[in-house]
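Hello,

Our lab assistant flagged a job as stuck in the queue for most of the afternoon. It eventually completed. Since we weren't sure the result was trustworthy after the delay, we are filing this so someone can double-check. Below is the sequence as submitted and the structure that was eventually returned. Let us know if re-running is recommended.
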Amino acid sequence: MHIYFHDRTASVSSDIITMLQDLLRFAATKESVTNEAELSVNFVDDAEIQELNRNYRQQNRPTDVISFAMQEPVEGELPIVGDHLPLVLGDIVISIDRAKAQAGEYEHSLEREIGFLAVHGFLHLLGYDHLNEADEKKMFGRQDELLEEFGLER
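-- returned structure --
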């Protein structure tokens, strides 16, 4: 899987990026995602994620992670025609400000918090959601399984 990282905060270490690359590829394998799939992971601050949250989710507050899935059909959208196009899953946007605060609140490492947020965003790109109790149980259970199997526990 091809993963493109964009650190708009200039604060994410190469060790964390390497860990995320390994973690997301591990999760992709476990979820049977093709090796040709692509996604991006973007690190931003609270101000930037609040703007995205306000513009795309109508919630004027910072959040920890937002996913923009490219595979969800949109009403009125024309289908893409072609046999050899890469599977573009979408974009994951993580607030480093929120990740640092939450790592402190939950008393675990920043590495673990960013890994958790990346897997959460990744599962959203694959169609998982938590709009009702049953879906939340399924998504959060899968999230915990992937993090535990990878060795990134609390």
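-- support follow-up --
The delay was a queue issue, not a problem with the job. The result is valid. The domain at 2-76+83-150 is CATH 3.40.390.30 (Collagenase (Catalytic Domain)). Strands lie at 2-7, 38-44, 65-69, 88-95.
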